[in-house]
């Protein structure tokens, strides 16, 4: 384990006063209405960027309350661990809700830890809630009796995590028999640390970024929480896309509840209207086998797989990246000789969404992307002159220096894709849109192209695309905070087509 962190404990010894706290918090309808000057002061004194780098996001009090209600339904606790305690929202609410428990508030940021200590003294709770300053992954905690792990672990992406901590994570997961990716963020490290500290009967209830439900590094966490019944996942609620829990965060939130009494069933649901709405129950083994979980939290989705995957019928390919669209996309008034070196291409997602690609005059309406060969020697005299002029102009813009351009055989030769049979838009606050490509145009990386693996007639293609437009919801992709959905080519390839949509095609 990396460097052991010094534990600084709060020195307050003036005794926890539950009745005072209860009257301060609950008399006004629960901690939801409690002001939080420490969080407000910290937010004013720091930039959003600095807070993001340290993973500081304050949990809305209504969610703190809902989560503690859930935990309380699972019995009493002797110890409550609030890892990444911030201004102490979970710690204070837990002290009020579990009068017998000792609360351990772990916080790495010394300013927040000091603010929390001062607040505890003010409330007469310094003995009930102990503040431990340090790194949750390194601290050894004085755990006593049945423990609840509650809170909102910091979300810090792997780019900002030190190599030795990545190694710690890999080794810790390996000790549990799980292969882990180096791309996991700090919230994943916190989950591992909590799992290491949990004993049978302990409960974990946390809110965290939801991307691990579906992505590559999340596979280790999905295994971690479905490996055994004693520490296993009990319930999971994903924030509805149109109701983000953390409005300023770039990711969706999920509340995870694990441990307690062993149970083979897992309840999945959504966070809707500030409450938890169940969607379905699955056997743990069934959930463990599912490659992606967020779709399973949606009503009406996650039905048993039937039919075939789209990827069996089509190759799904990203559009081409120029490295500098400003240089490669020709202005309408470019000389005709230069237009002769371009190909009409979809360069904006809206040309797919609004149906421009379907129009008879699409080739004239779409913009042209210059598509020079590697060897300019073979060009006819007039084209060669136009190409040389464009190359000089693009150089002046710095187009030859972009990372992408430098990876090419000749920096100017983009290599536009062959026209695909159909396009799919892949990013937006809406489901993807599928369109055929009757005018046979090319495309940049604002869309994916679908290339049939088998001969496919126009009517059959339309039938498949119509079905996809009707049936594909945003949860078949990756949904980020505020309902922004992204579909990687693999997500599109995994969309399922029922037999009625494709039979007779081959
Ligand atoms: C998402 S915030 C949650 C704050 C608070 N629990 C709440 O829900 O309002 C995560 C907290 O973890 C703290 N933190 C970041 N890295 C940490 C680490 N390695 N060990 C302990 N705390 C850490 C941050 O300073 C931040 O206060």
Structure explained in plain terms:
This protein has 506 residues and is α/β, with parallel strands linked by helices. It has three domains: 8-152, Vaccinia Virus protein VP39 (Rossmann fold), CATH 3.40.50.150; 188-301, Vaccinia Virus protein VP39 (Rossmann fold), CATH 3.40.50.150; 311-502, no CATH class. 32% of the residues lie in helices and 20% in strands. The protein contains 20 helices and 22 strands. The strands form five sheets. A ten-stranded mixed beta sheet has the order 1-4-3-2-5-6-8-7-9-10. A four-stranded antiparallel beta sheet has the order 12-19-15-17. It has a three-stranded mixed beta sheet with strand order 14-13-18. Helix 5 links the parallel strand 2 (79-83) and strand 3. The longest helix has 17 residues, at 381-397. Residues 1-33 have low confidence and may be disordered. The chain binds S-adenosylmethionine. The site of S-adenosylmethionine has 21 residues, from helix 5 and strand 3.
What is this entry, summarized?
By secondary structure, the protein is an alpha/beta fold.
Q: Look at the helices and sheets and give the structural class.
A: alpha/beta
Helix content: 25-40%
Mean pLDDT: 88
Count of beta strands: 22
N/C terminus separation: 57 Å
Which characteristics define this entry?
Rossmann fold; binds S-adenosylmethionine; disordered N terminus; 3 domains; ten-stranded mixed beta sheet; alpha/beta; four-stranded antiparallel beta sheet; 20 helices; 506 residues; elongated; 22 strands
SSE blueprint:
Blueprint: E1 8-9, H1 18-26, H2 37-45, H3 48-54, H4 61-72, E2 79-83, H5 89-97, E3 102-107, H6 110-123, E4 129-133, E5 147-151, H7 163-175, H8 186-197, E6 203-209, H9 218-224, E7 233-239, E8 253-259, E9 265-272, E10 275-283, H10 284-289, E11 308-309, H11 310-313, E12 314-318, H12 325-328, H13 336-339, E13 342-346, H14 350-353, H15 362-365, E14 367-370, H16 381-397, H17 403-407, E15 422-425, E16 427-428, E17 434-436, E18 442-443, E19 447-452, H18 458-471, E20 478-480, E21 484-486, H19 489-493, E22 496-497, H20 499-502
Parallel strand pairs: 2-3, 2-5, 3-4, 5-6, 7-9, 13-18
Antiparallel strand pairs: 1-4, 6-8, 7-8, 9-10, 11-22, 12-19, 13-14, 15-17, 15-19, 16-21, 20-21
Helix pairs in contact: 1-5, 4-5, 7-8
The structure holds S-adenosylmethionine.
Residues 54-59, 84-86, 89-90, 106-109, 112, 135-136, 151-152, 154 line the site of S-adenosylmethionine.
